[in-house]
Amino acid sequence: MTSLRLLIMGPQGVGKGTQAERLSAHYGIPHISTGDIFRYNLKNGTALGKEAGRYINKGELVPDEVTDRIVEDRLHQDDAASGWILDGYPRDAEQVEALDKMLERMGQRLDAVVTLDAAQDVLLERMKKRAAIEGRADDNPTAIAARLKTYDTQTKPLLKKYQSRGLLVSVNGVGKIEDITATIIEKLDQLCSNN
Ligand code: AMP
Hints:
The chain is of the alpha/beta class. The chain has a single domain (about 5-195), classed as P-loop containing nucleotide triphosphate hydrolases (Rossmann fold, 3-Layer(aba) Sandwich), CATH 3.40.50.300. It is about 60% helix and about 15% strand. The protein has helices at about 15-25, 35-45, 45-55, 65-75, 95-105, 120-135, 140-155, 160-165, 175-195, and strands at about 5-10, 30-35, 85, 110-115, 170. The longest helix has 18 residues, at about 175-195. Bound molecules: adenosine monophosphate.
């Protein structure tokens, strides 16, 4: 594969991060997670971290202009020249537009959008477990509920846009991790060989 530019979308707890890592290794492209970038900055007390923290701890979205700039900077780094998998971006309609414009400026295009889904009770159970293991500041019950709601109202509707562009690859997020990866790869390879 010469280049591959992917998005991975889905609600919190569906296993996006895990699958993104595995796809990153399989295709040899960097895994770019906006959540990870924000958490790194939060931990290190940077100005960006301080600003983002105000939203993250409540389960709200960090303002678009902040997030868009971070993504554009990251996509310009050398390791992203021949592909990437973006995890956690775009998350609202404005970000979809911002990404379209960024890619146009860079002379690039998206190859596919992977979406994972699972029932709400499965997601809540997984997030509860993760909270116990990782101790993320936003894995408290109020922030978890807010994040799931943010996903449903602001992010999930974006899938229709990508579906109408013929880019969507939908996979069930419940099952064995390696089986889910295999299904994603099979569907992605199919889609990309048709385009
Ligand atoms: P995540 O690890 O993807 O669940 O992201 C954790 C938190 O970081 C989210 O709840 C948001 O507060 C913030 N965040 C991550 N990605 C974005 C984005 N694309 N736009 C706005 N906020 C984001």
